[in-house]
């Protein structure tokens, strides 16, 4: 997948060179095309924003540099914006099927609406809060989408098995040492009985979800049908728990 990123602060995308995303880029699975919008400004000082018509606090990015920066780019156009629809699993999966996407990172009070209208930008949010600019949200979107692109993760099943996508939050995880500062790893994880381990992990996920995300828990209760007899018994038990 080719990912075009239009930004006023290209240096903020250094993390894309690290970890799994960096390795995917080295393998040619991902291609990051980071475009500095200021390079397309016709102002001698590379100015890319001005005060909004109608008054108001803050600055608005010019449409002209954005138009010039967008020339020749293909694929789906996205604008990171707190007024957009919050991205979810369906949106992430849909974007992972694209061959090329372009992400516009706003700053200050946003961008001239004519740029959004002309390029049919889909506004996307990562949550109901406001950040300084669209660079961090863009990296969140890229990371989430990349995990569903074949070859980015070592195990193709990892992304779909992740917390949230299964409908439940992840169960607790442990590693060496077996005892630390008087705290013990649950004994069931050492008995080698994969069925009992699975049931413990399932119950732990249910408890974590009910405690931390009751909205997800009750949605899971309403739609989940394909359970074994043991899983159904555990689910009924957790439903009755006071947490």
Q: Using DSSP, what is the number of strands?
A: 9
Low-confidence stretches: none
CA radius of gyration: 23 Å
Supply the helix-strand structural class.
alpha/beta
Strand content range: 15-25%
- Summed up, the helix count is 9
Assign a percent range to the helix content: 25-40%
Strand and helix order: EHEEEHEHEHEHHEEHHH
Largest sheet: 5 strands, parallel
Report the end-to-end length measured between terminal Cα atoms: 44 Å
Q: Strand sequence of the main sheet, in spatial order?
A: 2-1-6-5-7
Taken from the alpha-carbon principal axes, the silhouette is: elongated
Rounded average pLDDT:
94
Describe the structure.
This protein is an alpha/beta fold. The chain is 36% helix and 17% strand. The chain has nine helices and nine strands. The chain has a five-stranded parallel beta sheet with strand order 2-1-6-5-7. It is elongated.
Task: Give a quick summary of the entry.
The protein is 36% helix and 17% strand. The chain has helices at residues 19-27, 63-70, 89-96, 113-118, 135-146, 158-161, 194-212, 214-223, 229-240, and strands at 2-7, 31-36, 49-50, 60-61, 76-86, 100-105, 122-125, 179-180, 183-184. The longest helix is centred in the last third of the chain and has 19 residues, at 194-212.
């Amino acid at each position: 997948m080719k990912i075009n990123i239009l930004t006023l602060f290209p240096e903020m995308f250094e993390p894309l060179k690290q970890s799994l995303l960096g390795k995917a880029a080295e393998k040619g699975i991902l291609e990051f095309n980071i475009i500095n919008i200021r390079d397309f400004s016709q102002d001698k000082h590379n100015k890319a924003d001005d005060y909004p018509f109608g008054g108001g606090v803050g600055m608005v990015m010019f449409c002209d540099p954005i138009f010039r920066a967008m020339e020749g780019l293909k694929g789906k156009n996205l604008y990171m914006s707190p007024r957009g629809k919050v991205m979810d699993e369906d949106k992430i999966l849909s974007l992972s099927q694209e061959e090329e996407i372009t992400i516009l990172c706003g700053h200050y009070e946003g961008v001239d609406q004519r740029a959004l209208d002309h390029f049919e930008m889909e506004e996307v949010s990562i949550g109901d809060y406001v950040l300084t600019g669209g660079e961090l949200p863009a990296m969140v979107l890229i990371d989430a989408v990349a995990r569903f692109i074949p070859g980015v993760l070592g195990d193709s099943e990892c992304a779909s098995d992740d917390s949230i996508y299964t409908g439940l939050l992840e169960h607790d995880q442990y590693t060496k040492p077996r005892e630390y500062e008087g705290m013990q790893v649950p004994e069931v994880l050492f008995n080698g009985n994969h069925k009992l381990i699975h049931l413990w992990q399932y119950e732990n996920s249910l408890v974590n979800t009910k405690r931390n995300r009751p909205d997800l828990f009750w949605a899971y209760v309403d739609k989940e049908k394909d359970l074994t007899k043991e899983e159904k018994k555990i689910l009924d038990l957790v439903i009755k728990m006071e947490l």
